[in-house]
Amino acid sequence: LQRLLRSASGIDDCKFCQIASNKTDTEILLSDDELVCFRDMKPGATHHYLVIPRMHISSCKTLKMDNIPLVERMEQMGRSILEKNKVCSLDDVRLGFHLPPFSSVPHLHLHALAPASKMNLKSQLRYGQQSYWFITVSQGWIEPRKIIQLGLFIYNIARQT
């Protein structure tokens, strides 16, 4: 029954769930019991990593207030992978999430990019300060609590339409 439910929900088909359960050849750079970090397949910066929860969460839109510690740990792992890869300035990074429907994979993932100042125009549009669909946590503009509140707000608006 559990397998049927997983299959019906699409989790078995989720690329990131497969990566999190080591069912692909994706190189895992950092991991713990809850999170996995790996390189983005289409990097938007010299250093571009993704941090995902092992548990399937479809997007920041589905986060609840009790997910705040998870988002904070995702941010910390994003910073850790950048430090591990000797990013010179942690002030020149972007850490954030795309709002649906602008996320490429329907599994919550934090982008960790550096150096932000060297991103090309296409990457600036997707991950930069002027992007309307990329919510950042890296510069303190939106804290994890606000990401979740914004996700709940968007979810409630979508339900009304």
TrEMBL record:
Active site, renumbered: H109
The record's SUPFAM superfamilies line, in alphabetical order, gives:
HIT-like
Q: Where is this motif: Histidine triad motif?
A: 107-111
| Gene3D superfamilies assigned to the protein according to its UniProt record, in alphabetical order | HIT-like
Instruction: Tell me the InterPro entries matching this sequence.
Output: Histidine_triad_HIT, HIT-like, HIT-like_sf
Tell me the GO molecular function terms: catalytic activity
- Coiled-coil region(s) at which residues? none
Record family assignment: Belongs to the HINT family.
The protein, known as? Histidine triad nucleotide-binding protein 3-like
Q: Which organism is it from?
A: Neolamprologus brichardi (Fairy cichlid)
Its lineage reads:
Eukaryota, Metazoa, Chordata, Craniata, Vertebrata
